[in-house]
Amino acid sequence: MSDNGGIDRTHSGSRLQKAVFWGLHFVIILLCTWLVLGGGLESMASWFGWAVDWTDPVRVRILLFCAIIYFVRHGITLFYLLARRVEWGEVFGLAVFFALFEIGLLLVGGGVFRDSPIALSWLDIFALGLYLIGSFLNSASEIQRKRWKEDPSNKGRCYTGGLFKYSMHVNYFGDVVLFTGWSLLTAAIWTLGLPLLMLLMFMFVHIPPLDEYLAGRYGDEFKAYRSKTKRLIPLVW
After folding, report:
1. Taking 80 as the threshold, does the pLDDT of residue 8 lie above it?
2. C-alpha distances in Å from residue 64, one per residue of 107, 147, 175
3. Averaged pLDDT for residues 188-203
4. How far is it, in rounded angstroms, from Cα 221 to Cα 208?
5. Residue 42's pLDDT is what?
6. Angle between helices 40-47 and 15-37 (to 10 degrees)
C-alpha cells in the first residue's frame, strides 16, 4: 500500500469488500429502525432491567432519516463513485465507526439521557439544512468528477471544475458540514466534537498525503491548481 493516509489508492473493484461493507451498514440501519420504530429500545432496556424510552420521539425520527439518507449515499459511493480498492480493515473499522455514531446520535438526540424533550427550533431547521447541503456538496462533487473522468479525452488529467473549483477537497468539506448539522440535531452541544475531530483528521492526516499523491500523479497541472485553490474550506483554507 502506498503512503496515502492509510488508504490504498490502487484502482480495483473489490466488489466483495464493498458488498460486505454496505451489508454491514444495512444491518446497522435495520437496528436503528428497530430501536426507533419497532419498540427495540424498550425491549433492549427490559433485557438489562433498565427503564428508558425515547423522551424526544420527533427528534429521534429526524435523526433516523439522516442515517437512512447517509446509508443510501454510502451505497452510491461504494458501487458507482469509488474506483479505488477497499481493504478488509477499512470495511470492519468503518463499520464499527458507523455503528457508534449512527446509534450513538440516535440515543443522545432521542433523549435517552435526559428527562424531557427539547422543542424543535430554528436551530434544528438550520442543522437539517447543513446536513442536506453537506450531503449535496459531498455527493454532487464526486458525481461531477466521475462523469468528467468517464470522458476518454480527460484520461490522465486533474479535475478542477464543478464544485472542486471552490475547494480542492470540497467533498471532504461536505462531510464536515453534514456531520456538523447531524450533530446539532441531537441538541447536545458536545456531539460537535465529532465533526471537529473529522475536520482535524482531514487537515492533518488525510489531506497532506493525498496532496502529495496527486502532485506525483498530475505534476504541474495539480501544482497550478493548488496554487490558486483553497485546500478544504472555500474562501478560508
Report:
1. no
2. 11, 31, 18
3. 97
4. 17
5. 76
6. 80
Contact 41, 100 (CB under 8 A): no
Judged by average pLDDT, the poorest of 29-43, 192-206, 219-233 is: 29-43
Q: Which residue has the cell 491548481?
A: 225
So what's the pLDDT on residue 29? Answer: 98
The string of pLDDT tens digits covering residues 96-140 is 999 999 999 999 999 999 989 999 999 999 999 999 999 999 999
Residue with cell 433485557: 47
For residue range 135-181, list pLDDT tens digits in order.
Answer: 999 999 999 999 999 999 999 999 999 999 999 999 999 999 999 99
Buried b (16+ CB within 10 A) or exposed e, 77-105: bbeeebeebbbeebbeeebeebbebbeeb
Three-state SS across the chain? CCCCCCCCCCECCCHHHHHHHHHHHHHHHHHHHHHHHCCHHHHHHHHCCCCCCCCCHHHHHHHHHHHHHHHHHHHHHHHHHCCECCCHHHHHHHHHHHHHHHHHHHHHHCCCCCCCCCCCCHHHHHHHHHHHHHHHHHHHHHHHHHHHHCCHHHCCCCCCCHHHHCCCCHHHHHHHHHHHHHHHCCCCHHHHHHHHHHHHHHHHHHHHHHHHHHHHHHCHHHHHHHHHCCCCCCCCC
